[in-house]
Fold this sequence. Notes:
Blueprint: H1 7-10, H2 26-52, H3 59-80, H4 86-109, H5 115-125, H6 128-133, H7 136-144
Helix pairs in contact: 2-3, 4-5
Amino acid sequence: MTTTASPAIALGTRDRNEAPVRDIALWRLCLLRAGYLLIAVGMGLQKIPAFLHHGPWELMHGVVNSMLLALVLLSVLGLRYPLKMLPLLFWEMTWKATWLLAVALPAWQNHTMDADTRDTTFACLVSVIFVLVVPWDHVWRNFVTARGDRWR
């Protein structure tokens, strides 16, 4: 069995479109790490005890708590690999933006926003922090314009 590895991978170099980590300012990496830490600690303080001490959950309650615990655990990886874990932040920003547009905005427009919806809206708006700290030039080079992985 033979494998065909890219010469760039074999030599330990990067794809020609991928920016070396040293091209990203250290302060930006630290801000990303702070974001991952905020998720890991902030949500971890809620979700880890919930998992350790819970009774039977309804289906969707269990699904939501499982997904949020997975987010907490993967955020810990973001502390070590802030750029490689950017898709986790994309997911976080995307689901929150979707919820804000599909749930919070109509409730606000119809004047039907209750206290729980208001609290969740505030929690989702905190994700604006991630929009500000993500190195979008790196995202553009490595996720938008870079050549995709081969299909075969």
